[in-house]
Amino acid sequence: MILPTPGTIPLEFAVIEFIPRRNHCNVDNGWCANQANQFTKPRIFRTMALRDILVYPDSRLRKRATPVETVDSAVTQLIDDMAQTMYGAPGIGLAATQVNVSKRIVVIDISEAHDQLQVFINPVICGSGERVETEEGCLSVPGIVAPVSRFSQAHVTALDRHGVPFELQTEGLLAICIQHEVDHLDGKVFVDYLSQLKRDRIRKHLVRESRPEATGVARSKENTPAL
Ligand SMILES: [Zn+2]
């Protein structure tokens, strides 16, 4: 997932319109205070690798991921690779499906300093609270943001990177982000919530941008911080 920032392209406008950062769910009021024990300390990445991120409408994004049975060294290596890929994009969340690994693993870091990585293995979420509409972006749908309605709160159970079960009740941006990422694990992309007309426009835009001769701001990673 990505956060909309100035320079990100709103769906409704031509390619060079900018939009201000908007959020409708009060994410700036200490929403992360009760997740402190889920954060990992800042780490020095050792042998991590950037992985290629699948881009919509790639059919591999539609594959439903299977649960992780054993948290072994291959899984922790994948987690490290996913973290580096997310930070490098840059984004605030990434699901294993997006790097073409069909396992139920999500990494998220919504901190300003990018030093509070959260790992969710086999996450199970239950949304609650009111519905809020938030502008979302996605590393698999580069350059596009659009409003999506989701639950304002989410209860999550998962395993951490050591295979230890945990649960948390979250709200605000983290709640939105975890819903976005678990959708990926189920083969769903945020544009699925949009109208057929908008999806068609996005699909055509991204197919056009994937051509070798394509250039311009829509492909600029600097302008696309994402989930
Ligand atoms: Zn995404």
Structure description:
With 227 residues, the protein is α+β, with helices and mostly antiparallel strands. Residues 6-46 and 215-225 have low confidence and may be disordered. It has helices spanning 73-88, 172-185, 196-209, and strands at residues 9-10, 93-95, 105-108, 118-138, 141-159, 165-171. Helix content is 19%, strand content 25%. Strands 1, 2, 3, 4, 5 and 6 form a six-stranded mixed β-sheet that branches. The chain is globular. Bound molecules: zinc ion.
Percentage of residues in DSSP E strands:
15-25%
> Count of helical segments?
3
Order of helices and strands: EHEEEEEHH
Termini gap: 1 Å
- Write out the distinct hetero groups bound to the structure: zinc ion
Return residue spans where pLDDT drops below 50 for at least 5 consecutive residues: 6-46, 215-225
Multimerization status? single chain
Residue share in helix? 10-25%
Query: Using only CA atoms, what is the Rg?
Result: 17 Å
**Biggest β-sheet: count, sense, barrel?**
6 strands, mixed
Taking all residues together, what is the mean pLDDT?
Answer: 80
Structural class call reads alpha+beta
Shape: globular
Strands, total number: 6
